[in-house]
């Protein structure tokens, strides 16, 4: 262990207000703004596998700024404090740390489930596909050793959902399991195509993201993206199969191209087949469920999350009392006119009268036998 490096790792989720922190972190973001007096300071986001925290260097910034860059490991000595309701770290001293002096497992979050177990379960479900052309196509992917290794390792996203080693695999497995459950309810959808689409939809993430010591976009990922990579890879695999049906190929390409659902979410096309729609909805469901789970795990013991900009709302983590039951209309709760400081409530209140009026109209139409 090099001189000046703390021997005990303090994780981000262990940091408390007022504590002196001496530990190693990964620099996810670095900027050098200027204070009102013209002197620079360093603004950082530092992280490990448990999360990240904002950090500042107010003094001696010119000298300390030269010691490290983004994606470097640094050993810091600083004080944790609450500023504007958020915990941050005021760093007084830091040194760059060689990667050889770091336990990389401290910095890359990993799936909670065993990766090989998840892979075996995924392969077992894929073996249930009956369409012979799709079986041949799936085998083209499963026989690609480098690709399989990347699928097992890659995160599914940089930070929003399944942002951990094995995240892509966990997300894919969860989606094919959802497809297994939903397809019997919607027999119009071709089960084999939906399951294959779930397997292929995000496979371009193996090339879009770098995940050696942190999660970030590769140059190719920023310039091209996982949707295009996925379609290109599909084309390469299909060329190895004699007389792969053109219509089936078109169907699978459309699923990959449309799985984000809407143009504003990055899909070149919106779903236009029942299978593409189902894959897109399953993808959105599983991503949001994991995202909420990760949000809920922050600040344990609190009933509410902080305001989540991405969802434009607070999220409630509390559980209902299982002993309470609502019987008929007696359980109706009175509405409050107060917005209690909730940014989304004022917007809801603006439409509440209109919603009630609309409900009255529908009830009147229904009572006249028009619905």
Describe the structure concisely.
This protein is of the alpha+beta class and 371 residues long. 39% of the residues lie in helices and 14% in strands. It has a five-stranded mixed beta barrel with strand order 1-2-3-5-4. Strands 6-7 form a two-stranded antiparallel sheet.
- Residue share in helix: 25-40%
Q: How large a portion of the residues is in β-strands, by DSSP E?
A: 5-15%
- The CATH class of the largest domain is identified as Mainly Alpha
Low-confidence stretches: 328-338, 346-371
- Quaternary state reads single chain
Shape designation: elongated
Question: Main β-sheet: number of strands, strand sense, barrel status?
Answer: 5 strands, mixed, barrel
- Please give the count of helices: 12
Beta strand count: 7
Quote the distance from N terminus to C terminus.
Answer: 75 Å
Q: What's the arrangement of strands in the largest beta sheet?
A: 1-2-3-5-4
Q: Mind telling me which CATH architecture of the largest domain this is?
A: Orthogonal Bundle
Secondary structure class reads alpha+beta
């Amino acid at each position: 262990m090099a001189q000046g490096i703390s021997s005990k790792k303090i994780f981000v989720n262990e940091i408390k207000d007022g504590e002196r922190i001496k530990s190693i972190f990964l620099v996810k973001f670095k900027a050098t703004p200027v204070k009102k007096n013209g002197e620079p300071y360093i603004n950082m986001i530092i992280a490990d596998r448990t999360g990240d925290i904002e950090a500042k260097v107010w003094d001696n910034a010119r000298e300390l700024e030269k010691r490290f860059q983004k994606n470097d490991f640094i050993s810091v000595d600083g004080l944790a404090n609450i500023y504007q309701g958020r915990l941050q770290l005021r760093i007084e001293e830091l040194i760059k740390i060689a990667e050889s002096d770091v336990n990389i497992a401290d910095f890359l979050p990993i799936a909670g489930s065993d990766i090989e177990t998840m892979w075996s379960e995924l392969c077992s479900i894929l073996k249930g596909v009956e369409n012979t052309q799709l079986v041949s196509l799936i085998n083209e992917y499963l026989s690609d050793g480098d690709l399989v290794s990347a699928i097992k390792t890659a995160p599914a996203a940089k930070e929003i959902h399944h942002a951990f080693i094995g995240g892509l695999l966990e997300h894919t497995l969860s989606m094919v399991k959802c497809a297994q459950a939903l397809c019997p309810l919607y027999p119009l959808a071709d089960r084999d195509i939906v399951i294959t689409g779930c397997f292929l939809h995000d496979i371009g993430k193996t090339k879009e993201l770098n995940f050696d010591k942190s999660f970030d976009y590769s140059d190719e990922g920023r310039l091209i993206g996982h949707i295009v990579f996925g379609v290109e890879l599909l084309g390469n695999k299909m060329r190895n199969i004699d007389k792969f049906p053109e219509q089936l190929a078109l169907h699978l390409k459309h699923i990959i191209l449309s799985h984000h659902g809407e143009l504003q979410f990055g899909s070149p096309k919106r779903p236009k087949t029942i299978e593409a729609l189902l894959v897109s909805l399953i993808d959105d469901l599983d991503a949001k469920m994991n995202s909420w789970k990760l949000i809920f795990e922050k600040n344990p013991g609190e009933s509410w999350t902080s305001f989540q900009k991405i969802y434009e709302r607070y999220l409630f983590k509390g559980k209902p009392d299982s002993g309470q039951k609502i019987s008929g209309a007696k359980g109706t709760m009175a509405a409050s006119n107060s917005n209690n400081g909730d940014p989304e409530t004022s917007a809801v209140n603006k439409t509440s009268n209109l919603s009630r009026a609309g409900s009255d109209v529908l009830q009147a139409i229904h009572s006249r036998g028009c619905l």
